[in-house]
TrEMBL record:
<dbReference type="GO" id="GO:0030170">
    <property type="term" value="F:pyridoxal phosphate binding"/>
</dbReference>
<dbReference type="InterPro" id="IPR000821">
    <property type="entry name" value="Ala_racemase"/>
</dbReference>
<keyword id="KW-0413">Isomerase</keyword>
<dbReference type="GO" id="GO:0005829">
    <property type="term" value="C:cytosol"/>
</dbReference>
<dbReference type="InterPro" id="IPR001608">
    <property type="entry name" value="Ala_racemase_N"/>
</dbReference>
<keyword id="KW-0663">Pyridoxal phosphate</keyword>
<protein>
    <submittedName>
        <fullName>Hypothetical amino acid racemase</fullName>
    </submittedName>
</protein>
<dbReference type="GO" id="GO:0008784">
    <property type="term" value="F:alanine racemase activity"/>
</dbReference>
<feature type="domain" description="Alanine racemase N-terminal">
    <location>
        <begin position="11"/>
        <end position="225"/>
    </location>
</feature>
<dbReference type="InterPro" id="IPR029066">
    <property type="entry name" value="PLP-binding_barrel"/>
</dbReference>
<dbReference type="Pfam" id="PF01168">
    <property type="entry name" value="Ala_racemase_N"/>
</dbReference>
Amino acid sequence: MRTISMPRLEIDLDKIYHNAHTLVDRLACRGISVTGVMKASLGSPEIARVLLSAGVNMIGDSRIENIETMRRAGVAAPMILIRSPMLSQVDRIVTHADLSLNTELDVISKLSSAAKAAGRKHGVVLMVELGDLREGIMPADLEDTVRQVLRLPNIALRGIGANLACHSGVSPDTRNMSELSALVDSIEAVFGLTLDIVSGGNSANLDWALGGADAGRINNLRLGESVLLGCEPLHRQPIDGLYTDAITLIAEVIESKVKPSRPWGEIAQTAFGEKPLVTDRGNISQAILAIGYQDVDPSGLQGPPGIEIIGASSDHLITDTGHCHLSVGAEIQFQLNYSALVRTMTSPFVTKVLKAPQSER
Ligand SMILES: *Cc1c(COP(=O)(O)O)cnc(C)c1O
């Protein structure tokens, strides 16, 4: 009799602790602190507590809803909203987040009014554009923006940051990180202040940060994927000494039959508008699992050896199981990439099972 619902994510908190602690340690040697990024964790207070016990100094999330979830569960650590705030959410942001990453004066000015009304002070980290072309103030505009931010009541300018490798895949390297350090030096000199946070980027910065180069003024990284999946996002290579299986997905077989590999009839579009790839490999062992686009990004799944994903629709994952016949009801375990992880974590149809033997902690 099965009592655990399907599909499910199995989340090994000890392995996440190990990954976070290892990265915190390695980066501490380079003078860099870690903000634990929770955006793939749907604000799980258990995961936040694991990251904090592993030594991250702040929790970051891209959604205020997740920050509110953690606050409601009593997570008291400093929290930073890592996506530029929506004007429509400034009240919630100053209430629940201590800091936010920002690029727009209009937004910071509304955060200032909201913070004033709430009798609070809100910390701001200004994001600078270094070439990846997602969020960031153009470097030439930074000084002027800082001047105006410093005039706003109830706003504390806490630091400067950058984000690379998200929109255009631009790699963090000595050149762009030195540019960030130089901008920090120049802002401090012009305004006679000290910025306590210089947040150089995300998991894609690890090659640069651990490669032995001088970290310059960078004293913080915001890490999500590397902690949860144990791999770096530039080439999706496993990071030495980290677990890549801290989170796995289990799905259940609902049909298993020998079928021709070649469809018959007139071929038009598939459920998702793609043109189907028609190949003829003779008869194959085909198994269907009860998971689909509603739950996961199927292209980000890696099954056990010998099980190949050949298609997916909203609720079905179709696999070629080679020489192996799976029985109906069998549980199949998958590794996930970041895209698949984000989707499964946020799907209400996927149960999250936290495994927490606490052997290491
Ligand atoms: C998602 C995100 C991060 C974390 O990125 P990972 O690659 O998961 O480490 C850091 N900063 C910002 C602004 C982000 O949006």
